[in-house]
Amino acid sequence: MFENVGVSTEQYVTLIEKVPLHYLTLALLTYYVSVVLYAIRWKLVLRGMGRDAPLFELVKAILASIFMNNVTPMSRGGELLRIAWISKKNNIPTGISMVSIVYERILETIPVFVLFLVGMLYFSSTPELLFIIGIAGVAAIWIKWEAFVRLSLRLFRTSVSGEELENIRSLRNRHNINLMGILLSSAVWILDVARLKLITLAFGLHLSLSLIAVISIANLLLGLVAFTPGGIGIIEGGLVGTLTHFGIPLGFAVSITLLERFVSYVLSTLVGLVVLLTSGGKEVWRALKSR
Fold this sequence. Notes:
Radius of gyration: 20 Å
Largest sheet: none
Membrane topology: Multi-pass membrane protein
Family: Belongs to the UPF0104 family.
Protein name: TIGR00374 family protein
Main location: membrane
Transmembrane segments: 20-40, 106-123, 129-149, 177-196, 202-227, 234-256, 262-281
Strand content: under 5%
Order of helices and strands: HHHHHHHHHHHHH
C-alpha cells in the first residue's frame, strides 16, 4: 500500500510538529463529543430504571472514571468510581448504578458487532453475505436476549443479584431506550473511526474506512486484553504492529500511535484528574475504598 520507507526516531517529533492544527482540534472534539454521548446514553438508561441525574454530573463522572481506568490495572477502577459517584452524589442505590453501567455495555456490543462486520469488508469480496450475517446476528441477539445478557455478564466478568438481573431483562421492553441507546453507541463508534481517520489524514495518509474500522476494532481488543493501567505499552505496541501489518511505514505508524494516545490517554488522563480533584471525586473514591 505504501512505500517501505522508514522515519528515524529524531524525525518522529518533526512529523508530529507538522500535524495541521485543525486535524488535532477535530480529533479532540470527536473524543469529547463521545464523552457527552456516553453521558446522554447513561442518563437514558437511568431514566428507564426510574432514576435520574444531571447530565453535567454524569459527564464529570465519566471523565473522572477515564482517569481511574488509565491509572488502575485491567482498567477496572473507572466503573467502580462511576457507581460510587452517582450513588453518593445523586442518592441512587448502588445496585441500580451498577446495573445501569452493565446495561450500557450490553447495548454497546451491537454497534461493535456491526463495526466488526464493516472491518471485515476490508478482507471480503462478498459484502452482501456480511450484510446478511449482520442482520441475522442482531436478530439473534434480540430473540435470545436473556442468553445474550448472561453471556455479556460473563464476558464483562460482572456478577449481579437475581433482582438486578431481572432489572436488566425488564429493560428489553423499553424499546425507545434500547433504540436510542444503540443509536448513541453507534454514534460513539462512528466518532471513534472518525478520530482515527482524522489522525491518519493529519499525516497525509488516505486510508479506507473499512481499514480504519479494522484498526479501531484492533484498538478495542488490545484495550480489553491489556493488563497494565490504561493498557499502556500493550496498546501502543499492538497499534503500531497493526498499522505496519497493513503496510504503513514504521515511522508513520509510530507517529499515528503517539498522536492517538495523546488524545485518548495522555490528555484524557489529565482532564480526568482535574475533574476528580475539583468536583469532589476524591472524596467519592475514598468512600469507595473504605467499604
